[in-house]
């Protein structure tokens, strides 16, 4: 696959890359992250914003040195959750790089990612369940370009909890963009976390999530008269 830099070509690795994504606080969904390569070096980080991070409308993806690579922001008002990504630290009037929204294919839920300003209106589809750390990002040609998988401890072969997982990025695909999608998935799938508390109940985790109702107060206050996106 040819190299596709969406956020930063520094993070388009030639080989397929397995990144370990770790939540830096285990108490709150949608909190901070540290992302490591196979050598244990930090590649990306996202700072934690404390207990109300869950409802935070803006998250910033940084490299190991704290340089801002990407800002993702919840678009308001919108009837369904729609997020947008901006290069670097978003400035006033800056155009979005891409947008992300839930899209329901009958019988399964998916997330659609549209790249703005790309030739041929490029888009990606994310299918599977992020809440159970099992989903795939497909490009327009239906090639898998990134995958999120449960991480298994190499020595004990035990499946680790959901707070640490693999982000597998195909060679040439922008891993900074892939990690930006993880941040958004973590926010829009926060709803699903109510369905099983903690890691104790693994039963039924892989079922489809299309029948879950949004029951957070921030969904309820939106009115039908607002922009439908």
From TrEMBL:
Residues 219-229 have a biased composition (Basic and acidic residues). It comes from the Eukaryota. InterPro entries: LOR (IPR007612), LOR_sf (IPR038595), Tubby-like_C (IPR025659). Residues 199-229 are annotated as: Disordered. Transmembrane segments: none annotated. Belongs to the LOR family. This is Protein LURP-one-related 5. It comes from Stephania cephalantha. The lineage of its organism: Eukaryota, Viridiplantae, Streptophyta, Embryophyta, Tracheophyta.
């Amino acid at each position: 696959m040819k190299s596709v830099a969406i956020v930063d070509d520094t993070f388009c690795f030639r080989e397929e890359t397995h990144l370990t994504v770790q939540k830096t606080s285990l108490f709150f969904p949608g909190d901070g992250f540290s992302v490591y390569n196979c050598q244990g070096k930090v590649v990306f980080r996202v700072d934690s914003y404390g207990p109300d991070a869950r409802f935070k409308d803006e998250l910033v993806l940084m490299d190991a040195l704290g340089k801002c690579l990407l800002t993702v922001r919840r678009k308001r008002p919108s009837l369904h959750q729609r997020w947008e990504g901006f290069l670097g630290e978003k400035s006033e009037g800056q155009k979005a790089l891409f947008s992300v929204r839930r899209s329901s294919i009958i019988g399964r839920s998916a997330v659609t990612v549209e790249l703005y300003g790309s030739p041929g209106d490029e888009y990606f589809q994310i299918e599977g369940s992020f809440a159970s750390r099992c989903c795939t990002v497909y490009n327009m040609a239906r090639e898998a370009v990134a995958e999120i998988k449960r991480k298994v401890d190499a020595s004990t072969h035990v499946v680790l909890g959901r707070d640490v997982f693999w982000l597998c990025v195909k060679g040439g695909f922008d891993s900074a963009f892939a990690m930006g999608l993880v941040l958004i998935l973590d926010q829009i799938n926060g709803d699903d976390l109510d369905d099983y508390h903690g890691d104790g109940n693994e039963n039924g985790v892989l079922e489809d999530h299309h029948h879950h109702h949004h029951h957070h107060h921030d969904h309820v206050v939106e009115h039908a008269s607002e922009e439908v996106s």
